[in-house]
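Async update (no meeting this week)

Hi team, since we skipped the sync, here's where things stand on the single-chain job. The sequence we agreed to prioritize is pasted below, unchanged from the tracker. I ran it this morning and attached the output directly underneath so nobody has to dig for it. Comments welcome in thread, and please keep replies under the output.
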Amino acid sequence: MIYEDLLSFWIAFFLWELIPSSFSWEFSPYLKILLFISKELFFCLSLIFIARRAGSGNERSYFYVEKIFLLFSFIFYSFDLAFFGLKKFLSPYYFSVFPALFWFFHYYILIKIAFYRFRIGYFRILLGLILPFLILIFMEEVLDFFKISFPGQFFLLLLGVISLSPYLVIKIWPVKRLPDGPLREVIDKFLRQERLNLRDYYILPPLGPRFYTAGVLGFIPPFRYLFFSSGILEIMDLKEILGILAHEAGHLRKRHGLYLLLVLLTFPIFILNAFYLFLFTFLILFDDLNGLDKFLQGPYAIFFDIALIIFFLSLAISFFRIIFAYFLRSLEREADLYALSRLKDPEPMTSAFYKLGEITGQLFRKSWHHYGLMERILYLNYAFQRPDLIKAHSVKLRRRLLLWILMNVIIVAFFTYLGADIFERILKIFFP
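Output:
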């Protein structure tokens, strides 16, 4: 759930960044107002009606209906930016991304309320998760406002934000400190054995149905925190909580935060490579660039605008739901295998997963970012009989990560060398 929320806002941000501010199709203002009101009414009324009907059906239909509405939110948001001129209106101003993301949030919050009826505390969780991202944007805008720049600016800001922001996140989240007692003693002892330092441990209150989670927040020990949802602590015994803790220790010991950051940093390169291919296609279709310019000034240019929006949206969703999701699942599996190697027994984790699946009704559901709970149970039992899989999985994961990074860097370097001047001319035609 939290992964999906966070990635949805990432996609909304990149749509804002990628859709040109020159987009704003010329139609009658009255027609635009009518279409805008119709869009909002359609989204709200269909959400209320369909979500209620889907809720009375089976779990699978409920899941897919929610995803369809999420897709509609991206489509409508893209059309708000382009067709209704939101990007063109906001882009001349500093900090314009914040009202744009807030506008996307009005779609997103309606979906969450209609399908999950989350309490307000959940949106404090969501705000905390996107806070580092918002701080990074804010600092970039401030430096731009004062005309300040320096080498490696983005990466230095990114390093500072991801290192220090967990302290602010914990202040925003509706958490309470894990009280002294047997559980805290078990956690302290295990973390000492793992040579891991965390600042403190926290409990998330009940925030809505199916909200059962645990994790580690932060990259560096002075600002690194362990948290459990209250539901986890209510249904798990000490042995099962130890299994969950060993899994989280696996993320830390294997430096998964760094690997996820590397994958995320390939996203703009991936987009650039795909866009180069897009431009290359137009270069083949239009040998004469004047013909391309004439086409984009003609009556069919609107279809190009729509195609470009769909192209950017498809790229963003494909990256996160295919590429990023693959590495997420692989890292989750490595953390499971690490816990297995430390505990020498799959039962603490498999028992915990089974309880989670039973209470949430998601035991047999597939997961795009973690593997399904039953898949993880079966694999852990299989890996217990094949200890060689633990090292083999880690080697395969790192090789594929390296291959993905190198492939993107080589392709973008190739296209840049091949014809940077030609691509620059085409870009000026597209985005005058």
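Quick observations from my side:
The first strand starts at residue 176 and ends at 177.
DSSP finds 17 helices and four strands in the chain.
Reply here if anything looks off.
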